[in-house]
Each structure stands twice: as C-alpha cells, then as structure tokens.
Amino acid sequence: MKCVICKHGEMIKGTTTITLERGISTFVFKDVPAQICDNCGEKYVDQQTTRALLKKANELIENGTEVDIRKFQVAA
Ligand SMILES: [Zn+2]
Prior knowledge:
76 residues; alpha+beta; binds zinc ion
C-alpha cells in the first residue's frame, strides 16, 4: 500500500504512540499497532484499533482517571 500523504512511501507495519485528550484527561497508549510510511512517517491506525483505544479511554474517564500511560493491548 502506498502512502496517501506523500504518494511515494510504502506503508510498513510498526507500532506508534497515541495520545488521546478528553477534557481534562490525557491518556497515552504505547505500542499501538500501526502502518507507518517509510518516507514521510505518516501513521495509520486501523478502525478496530481506534475503537479499542476510545473504549479504553472512556473506561478510564469513568474511573476518574486524569492521566494514564500504558501499553496498548489488543482485547482477546
Ligand atoms: Zn508518506
């Protein structure tokens, strides 16, 4: 797959760090699976992973968490 941003790079499998901010809360997820452009560095996280991140963020907010840094783990 070619990168849609620079049109030159190839997308390679890797991991990235995603920061989500919701109101006063900030959550950092490390080791999130992503496709990364080898030319411009653009990162793509698939829909399923994005949904899992948002779900986890909502859980943290419900627990009253304001700051959280964790490794992303795909739910079984
Ligand atoms: Zn690119």
